[in-house]
Write a structure and sequence with these properties.
- The chain is built from 3 helices and no strands.
- It has about 60 residues and is an all-alpha fold.
- About 5% of the residues are buried.
Length: about 60
Amino acid sequence: MEWTSWETGPSPKVSALVEAGLIEATSTPQLPMFESWGKFVGCDGILPAPEAGHAVWGTR
């Protein structure tokens, strides 16, 4: 697996789950993630933390 983010990398637990084939890890582009985050705020009125914005983006 190759990680391109300079900010963070995979945790050992996530890496083990990926290697076992139990989950699939993907990278999240920042701009589309924040666009989804903004739509969520506008629709639901809840301001999630940026980290939770990645989950919002992943449900699209």
